[in-house]
What we know:
- The chain is mostly beta strands.
- The protein has no helices and 11 strands.
- The strands form 2 sheets. Strands 2, 4, 5, 6, 9, 10 and 11 form a 7-stranded mixed beta sheet that branches.
- The protein is globular, with a radius of gyration of 13 Å.
Amino acid sequence: QVQLIESGGGLVQAGGSLRLSCAASGRTYAMGWFRQAPGKERTLVAGITWSGQTTYYADSVKGRFTISRDNAKNTVYLQMNSLKPEDTAVYYCAAGWSSNWSKLGDYWGQGTQVTVSS
């Protein structure tokens, strides 16, 4: 069982930046971030493999968000720039063993709220 601890959410104005962190208690094939807005499905935002050689970004965040990892700390980061009100959601860290990004969630964090005001 891998435990994931998230931090870094908050309230920011449109155009601002936030960085989310997710510390894992163990190693998995890949880690990533999903988000879920009220009344909407949880969707994958970004993912990264253990090696860091393969990444995934949803079209809606390409060019604005960057995922990275520090394997020495078992931590994944999501740098979010040029934030928009539509980025408002609960962001969940996920980790897992599948090479299929949509099936990344073998393990989940508790979620952290990101609110972008207009």
